[in-house]
């Protein structure tokens, strides 16, 4: 090797000029100088040209694995600064989205959902989750005049719903909001400039969920089904779940319209009753709907929407093993793949009902 020969030459003739030795042995002068100064090659020191230390990369990879284990999509923006290098070095593969023809898309949807339900079943069995402790959370938006509001809702397979967590557009809380007599005392109101949620709201909601769902817990752990929104994958969100016996589990991308109870069943009557309530208010002569009017009617809308019957029907529609989606060729109905039966339902069942 030319560099080794040059180093040997300098060792034998320490008074040699480096520039001449570099020319004679055809090696870069700066590289020769670095070796003489005791600095090793860059490929022997991988942290030399990386933004993260090896320990940091290992921690980041554990975080990626953690998200993958709970079925939350690992997107490049989570590790954007050094994503490509880290993913390549540690053997992760990213598959770009492709435009597929309808038949192939349907086939891949079936495979994706079968894999999802199999993974979900494994998590349920491994953690001893009872059906009453399976929850689904999602956000839905409302229009208040020209402003937006976001409601974060959570329901359980046992037919329960936690109190409202609402985000209104604005910078400050108004005292009048909390004087609306129609609102439940446990309602939480947050604000943001847009009326949309953010990382801070998601963590606050999680604490709200923990407080209220804990009262309804039958087993030792709760399973929280949710979409892969970035606010649900922050370190703080995941850590809080780990510390409070909550197992978060994400839906496959672009599938909530098929497998999410709130999205498939509950939010449709939610919007229907809200529109009906607005119509009655307008008929009474109120043409400018403000936040106060919205707060006055939203609790009544929720009471009509979040009935035990509706909530349990939502879980039956989306989480059931009676007809595995692998047997379907197209999605004419929601793919059923994970049967749920509450203790109350099990006690009511008769042998003849099971035989049917």
TrEMBL record:
<dbReference type="Pfam" id="PF03184">
    <property type="entry name" value="DDE_1"/>
</dbReference>
<dbReference type="InterPro" id="IPR004875">
    <property type="entry name" value="DDE_SF_endonuclease_dom"/>
</dbReference>
<protein>
    <submittedName>
        <fullName>DDE superfamily endonuclease domain-containing protein</fullName>
    </submittedName>
</protein>
<dbReference type="GO" id="GO:0004519">
    <property type="term" value="F:endonuclease activity"/>
</dbReference>
<dbReference type="InterPro" id="IPR050863">
    <property type="entry name" value="CenT-Element_Derived"/>
</dbReference>
<keyword id="KW-0255">Endonuclease</keyword>
<keyword id="KW-0378">Hydrolase</keyword>
<dbReference type="GO" id="GO:0005634">
    <property type="term" value="C:nucleus"/>
</dbReference>
<dbReference type="GO" id="GO:0003677">
    <property type="term" value="F:DNA binding"/>
</dbReference>
<keyword id="KW-0540">Nuclease</keyword>
<feature type="domain" description="DDE-1">
    <location>
        <begin position="150"/>
        <end position="315"/>
    </location>
</feature>
């Amino acid at each position: 090797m030319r560099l080794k020969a040059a180093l040997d030459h300098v060792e034998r003739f320490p008074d040699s000029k480096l520039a001449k030795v570099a020319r004679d042995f055809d090696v870069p002068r700066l590289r020769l100088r670095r070796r003489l100064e005791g600095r090793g090659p860059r490929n022997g020191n991988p942290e030399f040209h990386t933004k993260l230390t090896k320990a940091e990369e290992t921690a980041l990879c554990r975080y990626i694995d953690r998200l993958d284990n709970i079925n939350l999509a690992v997107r490049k923006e989570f590790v954007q600064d050094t994503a490509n290098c880290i993913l390549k070095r540690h053997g992760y593969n990213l598959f770009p989205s492709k435009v597929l023809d309808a038949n192939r898309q349907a086939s891949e949807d079936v495979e994706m959902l079968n894999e999802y339900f199999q993974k979900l079943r494994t998590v349920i069995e491994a953690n001893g989750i009872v059906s009453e402790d399976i929850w689904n959370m999602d956000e839905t938006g409302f229009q208040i005049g020209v402003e937006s509001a976001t409601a974060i809702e959570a329901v359980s397979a046992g037919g329960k719903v936690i109190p409202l967590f609402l985000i209104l557009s604005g910078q400050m809380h108004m005292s009048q909001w909390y004087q609306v007599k129609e609102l439940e005392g446990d309602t939480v109101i947050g604000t943001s400039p847009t009326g949309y949620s953010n990382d801070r709201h998601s963590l606050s909601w999680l604490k709200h969920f923990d407080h209220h769902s804990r009262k309804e817990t039958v087993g030792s752990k709760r399973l929280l089904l949710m979409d892969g929104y970035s606010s649900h994958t922050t370190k703080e969100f995941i850590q809080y779940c780990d510390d409070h016996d909550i197992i978060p589990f994400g839906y496959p991308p672009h599938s909530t319209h098929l497998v999410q109870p709130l999205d498939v069943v509950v939010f449709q009557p939610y919007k229907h009753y809200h529109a009906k309530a607005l119509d009655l208010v307008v008929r009474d002569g109120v043409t400018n709907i403000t936040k106060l009017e919205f707060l006055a009617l939203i609790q009544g809308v929720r009471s009509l929407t979040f009935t035990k019957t509706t909530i349990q029907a939502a879980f039956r529609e989306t989480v059931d093993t009676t007809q595995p989606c692998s047997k379907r060729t197209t999605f004419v109905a929601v793919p059923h793949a994970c049967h749920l039966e509450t203790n109350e339902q099990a006690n009511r069942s008769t042998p003849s009902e099971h035989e049917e």
